[in-house]
């Protein structure tokens, strides 16, 4: 609140005035800075209709800072003249003065001073004339005066014309901002006027923690899988052998994905050991010679390739381990899922990093069909609020048939890919020892992509990694996937 | 996914009708292809090198079509057209035949024992009385390139060489010699070079430099000569200029040298099935004979048609449809898998042509039937699998020995950048980097991470295991150790751990280094075991 004294004095002036009061005059009359008076006007306005203030603007000339300095202390050239003693002043000393530079050139051109360049100790400035100065104040300027040094400035001054408002009074009843326990105890709240709440401003942000959006989306997906009866797979092994990551999945050793360009190999520990030996032999056979109804790939399968350790390129390696374990006992149908990190040596760009999270679902049961895979995909994606799906024939080394899953994006008005799926090949399942009538269907998608779509993030580096935008993390809403 | 670029108008001419972009996109979708991009040469150059460089380039509309990685028969316009026409019932799949030469003996390619050290296998064939136009020629070269990129694994598994048969004379010899002893004029050069000189010459060639490593360090390099000592090629690097193909070429000798003989046969079959269309006798390929170091001979190309029998019940059961045997046989024929009802129950006999080397199991046939039926026509059903879900416990988190000296880390052999040389053994650097990148945020910054690190572990089959860690960082103008301490206490409280030496947790100062900036290192220890 502005200084109550000023406010009350102003009210007093308004009361006495005929018509109204000009704020500039009022300020001058009260001996206060005009801005202070404007403050008083504003606080009165906030209290209701005590006064009504009409904004006016007028223009007049004012001396600029430089102009004021000259009016008070003399022009630059006069001050230069004044500061030269009879014996003269070295030029370098003169230049050090604040008015030295401009003053020197002006005084030189008006021939008030001269320079002796050959003087010992450096160039020296002397007075040439005797001048007596008298001061005159220039009060009027014409608008068209052109000058290289603009001293006067054209200023717009805002003032108020203050008149009585509909609830004018010379006393101010202060509005309360808060109810206090004392007011309640004494009952005085009944007579108080309370300042209305400002609902336009923001409240105080609560001090709380925040989950990374990726974790929020991950929680939602996990929830969906659990609701559908899927059991979580233990995926706590980023390091995998090529055997489980590729060979057991019937991905040939010459496949481009097993290249240095796509996969991260380890130098230490470089090789895995301890494979289930007879299973390894069956895998070797199906790759190199065929069997289980297959022609095989007909190439020389090498155990050294299979031993190479890598950073896993997909969590399907874990699914393979789980299915192998399942095959070692009497078969029971299972539904598995995992959401965890995978690593690919790909070109990095706005939507690709070397590591990301893969979401995977697997169902193993007797007699599953391609129609069943579509059915379960429909159920899964419906929980994400996606109901319009289309399936496109695709290719994976370890599934046949394979399907890419597309959904219709209302905003973009086109079909976009939302996942990949397929039925695992017999060359993968049968060497494990699973019964022949057991079908295993699976699908997967990345976690980052739906997160970026949900939270409107265009560059993956802002989402993942140390360059994450913490403000985005603080501000991102609750994840509700059905919307 | 390999991408094939075809000129749209050529494609439509060959297909016998025009399509709108949407219609063609739809057709691709059904067949398992993807119309990835509609562009032109001018646009491509504009995008890659700037508008000024593109001024002379062609405006002709190009379709960039994504093709499944295992369909080598769809890597050129000829194959795409054939596949689509048969799919749309516009034509029958052609029958590819290996024929004997009209007169005289077949061309012979003699392999000597020296090749065993570097590139042991070779196959060959002849395209007789072929007619090239500029488009066919371009397509011919392009297919070789695509095959080299894909199934040939950048020429390391197989390399293709095509030659004008009328400029050379058999029998041909495939041998291997020390680089200094090989000398010829390579394609598009004006003088002769030795193989050693070629290795240096091509070090700066943007296309060829990637293949040099395949033979560079070997004591002998592969080379093919004709009976007059003319060099046909030095696989997998470059052909000789002498036998190069032109638009006027009428007879083509194709040779494929390889480290994998299965792939060599597939690649040869692809080349000849695709382009025998332009021979005077379409879809016939003249045989060539390969003589092995031990004297055995073999005729190529194989062009094998393999037969497989399966039941319509199998297809219906796996897909989840209920179609008659006759319908399924018809559907498969649409996919270039000519099929007939044998009459024995619901048995179908399927003939797998040489262009479909991707079909290796009955499930591949079943997929094609489903594709021809239309994936989106299959009714979807809910599997009746009853399961109860289980979660992996959160309590598999061990708050244990943090920050002992040099935890055993796993090293990456081919890291992307210097930042990724080891799999992380602690979460702290990541959090500190995040703080550094977010310094402008209002203080204090309180960050945490619960995630896995990787540690070497000889007891595991892969020699490493993940370890779940919990790390928290407090960043402010004042250190606030009590904040982190409080977080630890609260966490322990939630995990039902008492603050007590012995049967609970306690904090003790770590010996040795103090942290930078005068901070202290602490170790939180738990003597009771993880759950």
From TrEMBL, chain A:
Asked whether the keyword Isomerase is assigned, the reply is no
Q: Which InterPro entries match?
A: aa-tRNA-synth_II, aa-tRNA-synth_II/BPL/LPL, Phe-tRNA-synth_IIc_asu, Phenylalanyl-tRNA_Synthase, PheRS_DBD1, PheRS_DBD3
Q: Where is it mainly found?
A: cytoplasm
The record's section on PROSITE patterns has: AA_TRNA_LIGASE_II (PS50862)
> Might you give the EC number(s) for this enzyme?
6.1.1.20
State its location(s).
Answer: Cytoplasm
Q: Where is the Aminoacyl-transfer RNA synthetases class-II family profile domain?
A: 216-477
What family does the database annotate?
A: Belongs to the class-II aminoacyl-tRNA synthetase family. Phe-tRNA synthetase alpha subunit type 2 subfamily.
Q: What is this protein called?
A: phenylalanine--tRNA ligase
Automatic annotation (TrEMBL), chain B:
* Gene Ontology annotations for the cellular component aspect, listed alphabetically: phenylalanine-tRNA ligase complex
The protein's matches in InterPro entries, at most eight in alphabetical order, are given as: aa-tRNA-synth_II/BPL/LPL, B3/B4_tRNA-bd, DNA-bd_dom_put_sf, Phe-tRNA-ligase_IIc_bsu, Phe-tRNA-synth_IIc_bsu_arc_euk, Phe-tRNA_synthase-like_B3/B4, PheRS_beta_core, PhetRS_B1
Gene3D superfamilies xrefs: 3.30.56.10, Bira Bifunctional Protein, Domain 2, Phenylalanyl-trna Synthetase, Chain B, domain 3
Provide the B5 domain boundaries.
303-380
The entry's keywords: Aminoacyl-tRNA synthetase, ATP-binding, Cytoplasm, Ligase, Magnesium, Metal-binding, Nucleotide-binding, Protein biosynthesis
Entry EC no(s)? 6.1.1.20
Localization recorded for this chain is:
Cytoplasm
Necessary cofactors: Mg(2+)
Which top-level group of life is the source organism from?
A: Eukaryota
Judged by the first EC level, this protein's enzyme class is: ligase
Q: Could you tell me the Gene Ontology terms of the biological process aspect for this record?
A: phenylalanyl-tRNA aminoacylation
**GO MF annotations for this entry?**
ATP binding; magnesium ion binding; phenylalanine-tRNA ligase activity; RNA binding
Entry similarity comment: Belongs to the phenylalanyl-tRNA synthetase beta subunit family. Type 2 subfamily.
Protein name per its UniProtKB record: Phenylalanine--tRNA ligase beta subunit
- List the taxonomic lineage: Eukaryota, Metazoa, Chordata, Craniata, Vertebrata
